[in-house]
Amino acid sequence: MDTLPLNKVVRLLEPGPLVLVTTAHHGRNNIMTMGFHMMVQHDPPLIAFVLGPWDYSYKALVETKECVIAIPGVDLMEKAVDIGNCSGAEVDKFKEFKLDASDAENVKAPLIKQCLANIECRVVNTDLTKKYNLFVVEAVKAWVNSERSEQRIFHHKGDGTFSVDGRTKDLKARMTKWKEITK
C-alpha cells in the first residue's frame, strides 16, 4: 500500500452526493454547491454540514436558520460545479444557471424544480459552528421528482473528479437488524 497525504483523506470518505443548498435572505434567493455533509440520525432526520463565513450563504443561514438541500441529477453536474465557482454576492445563480425556484412549504428558502429531490431544513444545533463551521439541521419536509428521466446522482471525490451512480444492487432482505429503514 502507498501512503496518502492526510490532507487527501477527504477523497476517501467524502464521495457522498454533491448537493445544492438554497437560502433566502432579505428577499434574495441563493444557491451554493456543497460536498461536506452527512446524515446524523434517522428519526427525526438530522443532517450535518460545513458552511463557513467564506460562503455567501453563511449569513443567510445564521440569520434565518433555514435552507433547502437539493440533490441534482447527473444531468446538472456541470451546472452544480459552475454554481460553486461563483459567489451569490455577485451573481443571481437561479437566473445565471437557468434554474427554477419553487416555493417550499415550511421554509422561505426555495426548492429547485430541476433537482431529483429537495429537503426543507431548519437549523437545530450550532454547538460546533464557531469551532468547526458545522451546522446540524432537521429535515422538515422532503420532495422527490420521480418524473425526471435522469435519476442518477453523482459524488464529489474531493479533487475535481466525480463518480456517477450506476447499477443498484438490492440487499434489503439481508438488512435484518435494520428492517425499519428498508421499507
Largest sheet: 7 strands, antiparallel
Measured distance between first and last alpha carbons: 40 Å
Quaternary? single chain
CATH architecture classification: Roll
Structure description:
There is one protein chain. With 183 residues, the protein is of the alpha+beta class. The protein has a single domain (6-181), classed as Pnp Oxidase, Chain A, CATH 2.30.110.10. Helix content is 15%, strand content 33%. It has five helices and eleven strands, in the order αββββαβααβββαβββ. The chain has helices spanning 10-13, 57-64, 77-83, 93-96, 129-132, and strands at 19-25, 28-34, 37-41, 46-50, 66-71, 101-102, 111-112, 117-125, 134-144, 154-156, 162-164. The strands form three sheets. Strands 2-1-5-8-9-4-3 form a seven-stranded antiparallel sheet. It has a two-stranded antiparallel ribbon with strand order 6-7. A hairpin with a 4-residue loop joins β3 and β4 (46-50). The mean pLDDT is 90.
Features:
single chain; alpha+beta; Pnp Oxidase, Chain A; seven-stranded antiparallel β-sheet; 5 helices; globular
Topology:
Elements: H1 10-13, E1 19-25, E2 28-34, E3 37-41, E4 46-50, H2 57-64, E5 66-71, H3 77-83, H4 93-96, E6 101-102, E7 111-112, E8 117-125, H5 129-132, E9 134-144, E10 154-156, E11 162-164
Antiparallel strand pairs: 1-2, 1-5, 3-4, 4-9, 5-8, 6-7, 8-9, 10-11
Cofactor: FMN
InterPro entries: Flavin_Rdtase-like_dom, Flavoredoxin, Split_barrel_FMN-bd
Family: Belongs to the flavoredoxin family.
Task: Sum this structure up briefly.
Its cofactor is FMN. The chain is built from five helices and eleven strands.
